Amino acid sequence: MAEAYKNAYLDVTSSAQTIYTNSSGGASIVYTLRITNVDGSTSDTITADVIDGTSGNSRIAYQMTVPAGTSIDLAGQSKINLENGDKIYLTGGAASGDLEAFLSCVEITT
Predict the structure, then answer these.
(1) Distance between CA atoms of 41 and 24, rounded to whole angstroms?
(2) What SS3 class is residue 54?
(3) Spatial distance between the Cα atoms of 43 and 9, rounded to a whole number of angstroms
(4) Is-contact 55 48, C-beta < 8 A?
(5) Domains of the chain, with CATH numbers?
(6) For residue 17, which phi and psi values (nearest 5 degrees)?
(7) Which of 7, 78, 72 lies closest to 46 in space, CA to CA?
(8) Does pTM surpass 0.90?
């Protein structure tokens, strides 16, 4: 079994965007999905979805408030397991890109 550690970054806007796609041919485990509001005065919201390559979609967060100048972790103490072809989409409440996202995962192949 081979493991590869990966990071992904995204400036989140009000359009749904892919931060990560598991194309390893195996599984991925997301350890961190951190959303940081870099605006010093205005709160924003984040919506996060797992797009399952075979069976449908699942929402991780829906219009969750990210206060100005703070970070939240959407993976938290529970990890997010992704099968091959699964994606994570992020959508912010504001078009301005006040939110920055960081994802850290391990891809496991056989």
Answers:
(1) 40
(2) coil
(3) 20
(4) no
(5) 2-109 (2.60.120.340)
(6) -135, 150
(7) 72
(8) yes
